[in-house]
Amino acid sequence: MIAPPARRGTGHAPCHHGEILQGVFLDATGRRCAGLVTLPMTGMGSRAEFTRRPGTPPERLTVHPGDRTKAARAAALTVGECARRRREPPCGGELRLTGDIPVGLGMGSSTSDVIAVVRAVADSYGVRLAPGTVARLAVRAELACDPLMLDARPALFAQREGRVLEVLGPRLPPLVVVGCALGGGAPVDTLALPVRAYDEGDVRAFERLRALLRRAVATGDAALLGQVASASARRGQQLLRHPEFDTLTGIGRRLGAVGVQIAHSGAVAGLLLDPAAPGLRHRIRGCVRALDSNGIAATRVFTTFPPLPTTQEFPSGPAHCGGHRPTRPDTPRRPARLPAL
What we know:
- The protein is α+β, with helices and mostly antiparallel strands.
- Helix content is 32%, strand content 26%.
- The protein is built from seven helices and eleven strands.
- The chain has helices at 69-86, 109-125, 131-142, 200-219, 222-240, 245-254, 280-293; strands at residues 7-26, 32-53, 61-64, 92-99, 155-158, 163-167, 176-181, 259-262, 268-273, 297-303, 312-313.
- β8 (259-262) and β9 form a beta hairpin.
- The N and C termini lie far apart (48 Å).
């Protein structure tokens, strides 16, 4: 008997540059849930190729590299979803992952892997999955996910539930971001961080920041967005406790940044500049020099507005070398580097 032909699908997913806002918010029913708004960044991402082999048992699924257990779960879950839609029995296959996103810096590397895999498996079936379905599969594969399956509109996203709490508007205000890596670019083991309990006062504070961010997006107010990002970053320090945080905010104040942003589950951070303010190039150069003189590695300069210019990368410094996350079964073993875009 001749085996059915193998069917190949591909998928891609981007990364982000940490969060603008993260905390606990109220959904439409008034229920508390964790949520975040990420800072998008183009260039880096994860790519997946899935070769489906009809007629093979579904447990015969191979993954390269072999340590991508979250990606393997995502592939198995998506095979089940797509096979059900096509009214076919689930089958095995071969999954290959490549990418250039640093691991452990809070840039969404694992979610990017998972979403690329979901898209590749769906492509092999000729099935188009809605963003909500992709989010649901991603949460099942890794317990919480970033909103990398959505379009470019800024959204408050419940990362543990895989749903959008609010679309804040059509686009972020124009910003220039001078990126850096705190802690020498060392990965952050987020599972080792203590779990913070939020009270009513915290929820009210986060809801106020949500309202301010909504207004900043609606009016294109870069300064107001910077205030929100800085306030959220300061709250995040109650858990992360980056020793360079005060230095970072001080540099921003001296050189006219509208605020700072950090990854609430990593070490990546950024100084936010208003591109409409005078002396932009001078302020960018000043930020880079000030970061480096204080032992904080500048990594890249990018924007939130189209058309996207060439991203300037700073390849030297401790953020461009480093090790891996502490070994765990779900830990990808890519080095925590910041490669050129």
